[in-house]
Amino acid sequence: MTALLDDDLARASAEAGVELTEYFLTDQAKWVWRYRVNQLASDPGSAGWLTRAVVAEPEGVVVGYAGFHGPPDEAGMVEIGYSVAPGHRRQGYARTMLTELLRRAAAESGVRTARVTISPENTASLATISGFGFVEVGEQWDEVDGLELIFEVPV
Fold this sequence. Notes:
- The structure is a single chain.
- By secondary structure, the chain is α+β, with helices and mostly antiparallel strands.
- It has one domain (1-154): Gcn5-related N-acetyltransferase (GNAT) (Aminopeptidase, 3-Layer(aba) Sandwich), CATH 3.40.630.
- It has five helices and six strands.
- The chain has helices at 2-5, 9-16, 27-42, 93-106, 123-129; strands at 52-56, 61-68, 77-84, 113-118, 135-142, 146-154.
- A six-stranded mixed sheet has the order 1-2-3-4-6-5, covered by helices on one side.
- Strand 3, helix 4 and strand 4 form a beta-alpha-beta unit.
- The longest helix has 16 residues, at 27-42.
- It is globular and about 40 Å long.
- InterPro entries: Acyl_CoA_acyltransferase (IPR016181), GNAT_dom (IPR000182), N-acetyltransferase (IPR051531).
- GO terms for molecular function: acyltransferase activity, transferring groups other than amino-acyl groups.
């Protein structure tokens, strides 16, 4: 993540073991990397829960990034985040990312609930979570993303 923040795509790719794309250097992505680097500095134990590159198999192409916002909280809730690079959208990758993240959450004994937060205007993400059993439980104001709807599902 620090290599990405330094705009060193070659070093970041070498460290990740996959060829990362310019999508990992966008302003939105850099906000994620900055936030996660700070999170790791304050809680190194959260490393296994955080954002990672998503690689489509068997091609080995990086299609985006996904992960949790951190380890489960005291109530057993994890929040899911994912982002698909524009050239790979509308091909089922977001649903696959969501499926795998829910599977990972369910495999952890301390996790009871998975959450996603989505802008009401983000029809693609709202469509992505349909069929997974998510229920709208509220809304929040995010200083970066504005109004977000909060959805949760038991794992």
